[in-house]
Amino acid sequence: MSHKVYQFIVIQVAILATNLFAQVGSPEPSITSGSRVRIKVDSSDSWIIGNIQDIRSDSIYFSSDQKKFPIKSISKFELSVGKKLRTMQGGKIGLLIGAIGGAIAYMVISSGDDAHFWTAEEAATIVAITSVTLGGLSGLAVGSFIKTDQWQAIAVQDIVPRFIPKDELTTLRSIHRQKKKRRWSASAFLGITNSNVGSDIESALKDNAFEVNRFGGITKEASSSTIFALNYRLNQLLGVGLMYSQIDLGETVAWQALGQFSGLGSPIKSSAKMTAFLFSVNQSFFNAGIGPAIYLTNSETVERENKTTKLGAVAQVGLQMPHPYWPVFIEFKIQYRMVGSVEIGPFEFEAGNQVLTFPKTKVGFNHTFIAVGIGFKF
To answer: What is the total count of domains within the chain?
Structure first.
């Protein structure tokens, strides 16, 4: 089960990452009241520039002079998607002017007499280089103050479907403000773990003369475990978070036979604490994340503890309800926690004159965690 869950997590993260880059790379701008557009009507070659007041099924209305343009008369439609600085274009023009001025100055000065510190040719070269440099810098400076519209062409048949009416735009802006305000979230989860820790210990006990077959059912399944999480949304799709979890990995009883009808059982309890930092991708109700984790594992008997610190990882998928931007939410989460192998033991068990030893043994602490939790955004 753990391996299948791990594969599922990796596949979902890959799908979300693909969707992320697809969305970032090809945005589809909407037309709203106030959008700056330019159009060509009928057979005219000149652009008409204005701001949209309203778009209906058959006409476009400009807000400045209440002009109305039938959609069927529009041959080209372009939407301003922002302003672009002309810094580089200004730099190129400045370099060209500086180069022309420098070339003229070079020809004039180089044909004259030598100066006190430089020859005529050296002086001409210095003036030419200075002219080109100053021209380029001046052009960059002037261009950095000049902004022009960046136009994106939109097919005439897409004008009406792309338009967002004023009342819908107000609602969208309200949701956007909520998204920006509620970037933080805190949540708590309660769930169960599924691991092979108990079965690995049980196999080692059988290999070391403990009579586990005679007294069957020695492994107790793990009980409930908890998660406390704090998350921050960097934007609509990406987030980061801190997570702390206390993990019960169950216990395995080491049986010893004292007589024909009696025995003594001493449990080996396994647990772990996890602190993790996650990078997450969020898409509507669904989210997935992966990140590094520090695990403090512990296997103990009545007389001895084995504590080990391990660097590992955790991957997860989650389903959040009722809506990603409501202040209170319920979330279902599946995690696969990659801890690796941990060396536990030796443990000694005494019963009368008999002493049995559980030697140092490597046990796999990887496990799956399934949980449901509640949280709030702020």
So the answer is: 3
Report residue 195 CA to chain centroid gap. 28
The answer to the question of residue 14 being in a domain is: no
Q: Check: CB of residue 304 under 8 Å from CB of residue 347.
A: yes
Write the DSSP assignment of 347-374 as a string of letters.
EEEEETTEEEEE--EEEE--EEEEEEEE
pLDDT band (50, 70, 90) for residue 2:
very low
Question: Which domain does 342 fall in, by range?
Answer: 182-377
Query: If 0-12 CB within 10 Å is exposed, 13-18 middle and 19+ buried, where does residue 231 land?
Result: buried
Whether 160 and 271 map to the same domain: the answer is no
Output the domain CATH number for residue 48: 2.30.30
Nearest to 39 by CA among 156, 163, 157: 156
Cβ atoms of residues 200 and 158 within 8 Å: no
Nearest to 238 by CA among 179, 189, 326, 171: 179
- Cβ within 8 Å of residue 107, ≥6 positions away: 124
DSSP strand pairing (31-32 vs 163-164): parallel
Helices (H), strands (E): how many in the chain?
6, 21
Tell whether 339 and 191 lie within a shared domain. Answer: yes
* pTM, two decimal places: 0.54
Which amino acid is it at 177?
A: R
Q: Is the pLDDT of residue 54 over 90?
A: no
Strand partners, 293: 276, 312
Output the pLDDT for position 223: 67
